[in-house]
Amino acid sequence: MDNNNNNINSQNQFVRTFKKHNDSVTSVAFSSDGSTIVSGSIDKSIMLWDTYSGALIKTLKGHNSAVGSVAFSPDGRKIVSGSDDKTIKLWDASTGALIKTLKGHRDYVWSVAFNHDGTTIVSGSHDTDRTIKLWNASTGALIRTLEGHNRGVNSVAFSPDGTKIVSGSGDKTIKLWDASKYTSIQTFKGHNRGVVSVAFSTNGTKIVSGSHDTTIKLWDASTGALLNSFENRRSVLSVAFSPDGKKVVSGSKDYSGSKDNTIKLWDASTGVVIKTLEGHEYSVVSVAFSPDGTKIVSGSADNTIKLWDVLFLKYEFTQNLYTNEVVEWLRVNEIEYTFNHEGDKLIFHVMKKDHPLLLNIIVSSEGYKVERPGSLLLENMITIKACENIREQKYTSIEDLIIDLYRSFAYSKEAEKYKEYKLKF
Q1: Could you give the C-alpha distances from 56 to 16, 41, 102, 341, in angstroms and in order?
Q2: What is the pLDDT of residues 223-240, one digit of tens each?
Q3: Is the whole-model pTM more than 0.85?
Q4: Nearest CA to 167 among 204, 195, 129?
Q5: Could you tell me which of 157, 173, 315, 400 has the fewest CB atoms within 10 Å of its CB?
Q6: C-alpha torsion 224→226→228→231, nearest 10
Q7: What's the CA gap between 184 and 162, in Å, rounded?
Q8: Vertex 21, ends 17 and 22: CA angle to 5°?
C-alpha cells in the first residue's frame, strides 16, 4: 500500500487514492466480484489493485505504447487491453502472464470489451482504421471486422446478453450492431461533437453516451429514441450505469483554467446531479461502478486512481462542508466520534465525555439507524420528533443527526436526571 492513502477529500466523501502509475490513467475496471481493480495508463503499464486494502497486486508490462483500454473477463480470470501500439493483449489475471497478442488494427486501439460469457472480444480503433473488430478470446483469431463509422471508434461495449454491440465515434454518432450477424442495426444521431464513451444498462434496455459536446444522452436500445439529455458543461470522457440502472456516473475533461476535474453522479430518470465528487487534479478519463453498486472507481490524467464509496454519497461527513458555527458547536460541546467499516456498513461511535447519550450510527445501503449501547433505550433519551426523523430518514448529514439528537436529549424526560450535562446552545 505504499503511496496509497485513505482520506476524506475537500468535499468530505470517503475516498481512497491509488498512486503508482507514472502517467495518465486512461482506463479502470472492476473484476466481476468487485475484489480487484485493473487500470491502464499512458505509462504503458497495466496494474491490478486490491479493492479493499488498496494494495498493488501486480504490474503487467508488454505494450510498447500507451494502454488506452482495459477490461476483465466475466469470470475474472483474464484481462484484455488495447494500446496505441495497435495491438490487443490477453493476460492471465492471476499470474499476470501474457496469453496472446492480437494484431489486425492499423491504428490506436482505444476500446476493448468482453462479451457476456467471455468467448468474444470487441475492439474499436482510431481514425486511420475506424473499424470495430471481433476476436475469438480462446484462439485470438479475428472473427469479423465491422465498418461504418467515418471517424475513429472511441468506445465499444457488448449488451449484457452478448447479442448486440454499441459503438461511439468521433463522427458524432452511436451505432448499434448485431453481434451474430455482424450488421449495423441502427445509428443514433444527436450529439454535436465526437462521442467518447458508451455503455449499456445492466438490463440492456438503455444506452448512455458521453460526448465532447458536453452532454450525456440516454437512448432506448430497442428504438434508438433519445430518452434524456444531461448538460455537463465540459467534455464528458467516460460514462457508466449503476447496476440498478437508476444512476449514471460521468468523468469530465479539464480544460485549461476550468478546474472541472469532477465526477458527477446523475439520476438517470431526471438528469439531476445527485452528487459532484471532487478530488482529482486533472481530467477524469475513466469511471466505473463496482458490480454491487456500492463503489465508483475513477482514473485520471493526474496519474491517480480514486475509489469512492457510493454507499455514503447520500450523507455528508465532517467539518469542511459545514459552517464554522456548526464546527464550533461540536467543539465547544466536546462531542467526538470515530468510525470504522464492518463489511458493507460504516459505524459511527459518538460520545460526549461523561454524558449518558452514547450513540452508534450504522450507515448501510438501506439508510441509517441509531442505537444506544447500554440499558437505557434511545427512545427514552430523545424526543418523539427526533425518533420520527430517524425512522423517516430525514437527516441528510451525520453531523445534523448528531447535533439534533444531543439537542433533543435536553428536552427529554431522562434529561431531568442529568441537568449537569446540558449542552451549550
Answers
A1: 13, 15, 27, 21
A2: 999 999 999 989 999 999
A3: no
A4: 195
A5: 400
A6: 110
A7: 15
A8: 125
Phi-psi region of 112 (alpha: psi -120 to 50; beta: other; left: phi over 0): beta
- Which amino acid type is present at position 334? E
The arrangement of strands across the sheet holding 56-60 comes to 25-30, 36-41, 46-50, 56-60
Cell numbers for 159: 449488451
Q: Which of these ranges, 90-94, 139-143, 339-343, has the smallest mean pLDDT? A: 339-343
- Burial grade of 251 (CB within 10 A; 0-12, 13-18, 19 or more): buried
HSE-up of 286 (CA within 13 Å, CB side)? Answer: 28
295-345 confidence digits (pLDDT tens): 899 999 999 999 998 765 555 444 333 455 666 676 777 888 777 767 667
Compute how many other C-beta atoms are within 10 angstroms of the C-beta atom of residue 358. Answer: 16
Q: Which residues of 324-336 are buried (b: 16+ CB within 10 A; e: fewer)?
A: eeeeebbeebebe
Give the three-class secondary structure for 30.
strand
Does the pLDDT at position 112 exceed 90? yes
Q: Are 226 and 218 in contact (CB under 8 A)?
A: yes
Phi/psi of residue 266, nearest 5 degrees? -110, 145
Q: How distant, in Å, are the alpha carbons of 126, 177, 236 from that of 149?
A: 10, 12, 20
Q: For the purposes of burial, counting CB atoms within 10 Å of the CB of 145, is it exposed (0-12), middle (13-18) or buried (19 or more)?
A: middle
C-alpha cell at 398: 451525520
The one-letter amino acid at 135: W
Mean pLDDT, rounded, for 148-153: 96
CA angle 33, 36, 40 (to 5 degrees): 130
Task: Give the helix/strand (H/E) hosting 332.
Answer: helix 324-332
Round to whole Å and give the CA distance between 189 and 273: 24
Band (411; pLDDT cuts 50, 70, 90): confident
Q: Are 110 and 68 in contact (CB under 8 A)?
A: yes
CB atoms within 10 A of CB 68: 27
Where does the pLDDT of residue 257 fall: very low under 50, low under 70, confident under 90, or very high at 90 and above? very low
CA 400, CA 394: separation in Å to the nearest integer?
10
User: CA torsion sign, 402 to 408 to 409 to 414?
Assistant: negative
Backbone torsion region of residue 267, taken as left when φ is above 0, otherwise alpha when ψ lies between -120 and 50, otherwise beta: beta
What is the C-alpha to C-alpha distance for residues 78 and 70, in angstroms, rounded to an integer?
11
Q: In which element (H, E) is residue 325 found?
A: helix 324-332
d(Cα 21, Cα 263) in Å, to the nearest integer?
20
